[in-house]
Amino acid sequence: MQIKVDRKKCTGCGICVTECPKGGQIWHVDRRSKKAQADNLEFCHVCTICAAKCPVGAIEIIRDGKR
Ligand code: SF4
Ligand code: SF4
């Protein structure tokens, strides 16, 4: 699976970091660019909370190549 962040939409609000059950293990907001990025996806259990909570709809979860 992949988690894509639309960098044009992302405001760096950090809601994905606080709402994800794995939080900072997966999500980081780059201080300079103010853009969120998901890494360490081995911790992700694909609950899709991050995508649901992102206020600007910037997060896309792609399961095994399918959208
Ligand atoms: S919740 Fe959405 S807009 Fe906010 S930092 Fe995460 S990806 Fe960016
Ligand atoms: S799908 Fe769930 S566990 Fe995975 S990054 Fe999003 S909120 Fe976190």
Describe the overall structure.
This is Ferredoxin family protein. InterPro entries: 4Fe4S_Fe-S-bd, 4Fe4S_Fe_S_CS. Residues 1-32, 34-64 form the 4Fe-4S ferredoxin-type domain. It holds the Pfam family Fer4_9. By secondary structure, the chain is an alpha+beta fold. It has a single domain, classed as 2-Layer Sandwich (Alpha-Beta Plaits). It has two helices and four strands, in the order βαββαβ. The protein has helices spanning 15-19, 49-53, and strands at residues 2-5, 27-29, 36-38, 59-62. The protein has a two-stranded antiparallel sheet. Strands 2-3 form a two-stranded antiparallel sheet. The structure holds iron/sulfur cluster (2 copies). One iron/sulfur cluster binds at residues 3, 20-22, 26, 38, 44-50, 61.
Helix content range: 10-25%
Q: Which structural category fits the helices and strands?
A: alpha+beta
CATH architecture: 2-Layer Sandwich
Instruction: Choose one word for the global shape.
Output: globular
Mean pLDDT, to the nearest integer, reads: 95
Spans of at least 5 consecutive residues with low confidence:
none
Strand content: 15-25%
- The span between the termini is 10 Å
Summarize the helix and strand pattern as letters.
EHEEHE
CATH fold category name: Alpha-Beta Plaits
Q: What is the CATH C level class, in words?
A: Alpha Beta
- Can you list the strand order of the major beta sheet? 1-4
| Bound compounds | iron/sulfur cluster
The biggest beta sheet, please? Answer: 2 strands, antiparallel
Number of strands: 4
Number of domains: 1
Total DSSP helices: 2
InterPro entries: 4Fe4S_Fe-S-bd (IPR017896), 4Fe4S_Fe_S_CS (IPR017900)
Organism: Methanobacterium alkalithermotolerans
Protein name: Ferredoxin family protein
Pfam family, one: Fer4_9
